[in-house]
Amino acid sequence: MPEQGKRLIVKFRKLLARGPYYGYPGTDGTYTSNFLAYLFQEHILLGLFYANPIHPFSRRERVIYFFNATAWMFLLSAALSSTPIPWYLSAFLVAVLSIPYEVMLRALVECSCCVYNKKVEAVGETLGMCIMLIFCVVSILWITLAVVILEEFQSGPTVFLETWIVSLLESYFLLVLCYALKVAVLQHRTKRWFKNYVKKYFPNHKFTNFGEIAECIHPTWAQCDKDKKIAAAWQRIFAPAW
Questions:
Q1: 205: number of Cβ within 10 Å
Q2: Shortest CA distance to 95 belongs to which of 144, 166, 177, 182?
């Protein structure tokens, strides 16, 4: 792969690290397309299936993240279902309390600030792996504590399950609302960052996303590239989010 292609992948990975608020392949520069791309990349559930293969927050990390966040909500649901608080209010409280925990957990596991330097990124990957292992143990702890609480207070399983399931659904919906606000606020800053990159390396073009750049430079070396795996990986990296 030529230097131009490598530079594009590095730049695109930095976009994923800072948040794909603007410029993701398949978007057209509008708020709706930017929001959908961000949602498919960053949502705790959708990201398990649609995350970009070179995203700094890998799918393995996302699985651990999803499991731990779900276990945390399992514990909160068990605790609140053992109180006089109505189950529907308990579910909402669990959903709200889960968001700051998920933000903290993702920041620790992903270490996205390390992406900007190769040497530091290697350290960040090792640190992230250690943190993942710790949170695997913590997840089991949360579930164990939840079972103990349910046994101790003997709250009905129906109330607990209602609280837990509804809180999961509400938390997923609250995340969508948060993402909608984040994209509305931050897409313009990311747009300037993207336009400066295009202006510097492609002054005669008016690209709106990294996918268009990839299509522009790919034919210059694809026919000479004998490694079909590299070409296939290129297509997966710069494919639309949905």
A1: 11
A2: 166
| Torsion angle in degrees (nearest 10) through CA of 144, 146, 149, 153 | -130
For the chain, where are the E strands, in sequence order?
none
Residue 53 vs residues 34, 56, 86, 229, 241: alpha-carbon distances, Å: 19, 9, 42, 14, 11
Instruction: Give counts: helices (H), strands (E), the chain.
Output: 10, 0
Burial 108-132 (b: 16+ CB within 10 A, else e): ebbbbebbeeeeebeebeeebeebb
Across 9-18, 129-138, 180-189, 216-225, least confident range:
216-225
- Position 82 scores a pLDDT of 84
Closest Cα to residue 149, out of 69, 67, 86, 82? 82
Q: Tell me whether residue 214 is exposed, middle or buried, using C-beta atoms within 10 angstroms of its C-beta: 0 to 12, 13 to 18, 19 or more.
A: buried
Record the tokens describing residue 57, joined without a space: 């927050």
- The C-alpha atoms of residue 185 and residue 180 are separated, in whole angstroms, by 9
Which tokens go with 21?
């608020």
Which 3 state secondary structure label does DSSP give 223? coil
Average pLDDT of the residues in 30-40: 96
143-165 pLDDT, tens digit per residue, is: 999 999 888 876 667 788 889 99
Judged by average pLDDT, the poorest of 13-17, 144-148, 228-232 is 228-232
